[in-house]
Amino acid sequence: MESNLRSFHLERFIENLSAQEIKEFTHSGTDVSDYKWRNELQKIVELREKKDWASLGKILTLLPGSARLLGAEINSMYAMWQKKIINNPLERLVLLTSDTEIANRIAAVLRAYFLAPQSSLPCSQVLVHSINGLQDKNPEHFQFKGLPNLIRILGAQARQWSASHMAINATGGYKAQIAFAVLFGQALSVPVYYKHELFNQIIAFPTTPFTIDLRLLENNLRFWANLAEPNAVFSFTQLQELDAPNLKNWETILPLLETISESNETYYALSPLGLIYWEALCTRKPDLELEPIPATKNTGCRFRDDHYPKGFKIWAQRVNERFPFITGCHSLDYSGQQSLSFGFTEDQGKIIGVYKDRTGFGARLEILTTCTNALERHYVVRVLNSWKIE
């Protein structure tokens, strides 16, 4: 029996570990036989049956961090603390989950476990990000959406919290996911750790003499910035129109692209490796930006039939008329947005302006522009926020 009771992923515990198998962990010969949680065994089984994942995560804190029933995900974090790789308590934990229902359940258990003060490894902040497309039902979605989205969010985390203060625990998940997490770590000098179900300890992936020459990207920023946009796919003719002088040296670009065949046509997208290059460049040079082209026409401002703060429409008109890259604007619903501050931000590829009058009453505006990529949107947001109304 013991060979079947080695460390496993929480998915097995949540989905198909029988009550009898759980009880086996309380018998002699296992690593949790003498702990006080034995009296809570029936409650653990009941919480799982009720699918009360948050309560299940809290009650699992009665186990020591090395207990196999906790699964490789928690075991690996506990092992990282034992090796003094991370602090205890932990300041921040970011969980990147696959795009599946079981992943949502596991995330709920893990979040409750690590947020509990009595946990073997309590954490002040636990953030959860579900990676769109990272699932095993549709291979094309996994390849062309899931993996790129994983790399994008790894890059975003590195820029938000600093790559030098970051470590990746690649335990759990798909093998391709682990492989690209390792490549990402190598490219940005972020240490990557892993614990297999049958390992008794955490291992660090060794650093390799992996260096990347980012000059190819830097010398053709607009070309690569457009390719790096989510769901961006181009024909060869369209690639030629993206300001790409290095297309003459196709061999230097092809390794960073992947081909997609559809209706006897070949299309190109940035490959996960190419996206790692791009995220490495953006992380090392976070101030990169591009000025968008001027608009050839402007459709003006459109306003919903709402009650607006005093001066909002005049402000919106001035924004719309002031900048050559703006093609129009329209108001947005403001309900539930009272905590937002005055100014301009980018939100999921859209540029949003927030206006507030002297009483704190506010309104939102979406600014339409000629931007085709994130670097151009960065430029626009910076320019808008530095603008003072005459």
Layout of secondary structure:
Layout: H1 10-15, H2 19-24, H3 41-50, H4 53-59, H5 71-82, E1 90-97, H6 101-115, E2 123-130, H7 139-161, E3 168-169, H8 175-188, E4 192-194, E5 203-204, H9 215-218, H10 221-227, E6 234-235, H11 236-240, H12 250-253, E7 257-262, E8 265-270, H13 272-284, E9 301-302, H14 312-322, E10 326-332, E11 343-347, E12 350-356, E13 362-369, H15 374-386
Parallel strand pairs: 1-2, 3-4, 9-10
Antiparallel strand pairs: 4-5, 6-8, 7-8, 10-13, 11-12, 12-13
Characteristic terms for this protein:
about 400 residues, alpha/beta, Rossmann fold, 5-stranded mixed beta sheet, 15 helices, disordered N terminus
In CATH terms, the superfamily of the largest domain is Hypothetical protein VC1899 like domain (Restriction endonuclease-like)
As laid out across the biggest beta sheet, the strand order is 9-10-13-12-11
Distance between the termini: 78 Å
Low-confidence stretches: 1-7
Number of domains: 3
**What's the number of helices?**
15
Note down, in words, how this protein is organized.
It is a single chain. The protein is of the alpha/beta class and 390 residues long. It folds into three domains: 2-204, 3-Layer(aba) Sandwich (Rossmann fold), CATH 3.40.50; 215-284, Orthogonal Bundle (Arc Repressor Mutant, subunit A), CATH 1.10.10; 301-386, no CATH class. 38% of the residues lie in helices and 17% in strands. The chain has 15 helices and 13 strands. The strands form four sheets. The protein has a five-stranded mixed beta sheet, with helices on one face. The chain has a three-stranded mixed beta sheet with strand order 3-4-5, sandwiched between helices. A three-stranded antiparallel beta sheet has the order 6-8-7. Strand 3, helix 8 and strand 4 form a beta-alpha-beta unit. Helix 3 (41-50) runs antiparallel to helix 4 (53-59). The longest helix is centred in the middle third of the chain and has 23 residues, at 139-161. The protein is globular and about 70 Å long. The termini are far apart.
